[in-house]
Amino acid sequence: MNMKLKGYTKGSLETRVAGADPYQLVQMLMAGVLENLNYAKGAIQRKDLEKKSHYLSKAQAIVDSLRYSLDDTAGAEATGNLRELYMYMSTRIADASIDMDIDAIDEVARLMIDIKGAWDQIPADQRDVAMNQMQQAAGA
Predict the structure, then answer these.
(1) Quick one: which of 94, 13, 4, 103 has its CA closest to 56?
(2) pTM of the model
């Protein structure tokens, strides 16, 4: 990617992040996981070990960030299940990196697509209520 396009892309992302609410930030993080998994898959197919490691590390860091950001006060069972799923995904990303395993990448991508699909289906009025509760809990 040429430097001008790379700079524009980075600036565009920074603008989107700055204007995003927490719900949208989670959407962006989930999309980032999928994007990095896709790039890593291509790197494995090209046998580009450096890029494979770079993109899988980024994907794993985002999954771990999603896991650490879970709110234990909002539906303990669902939160616990999601935390375990994120942990499993992180482990599978590590497996993919060690074994050059495209099937593991595909598995994690399918799981993230399912999670993101459910997240994207949350009605706007419920998002606002949940975000307000999160902000109140953070301020308490």
Answers:
(1) 94
(2) 0.79
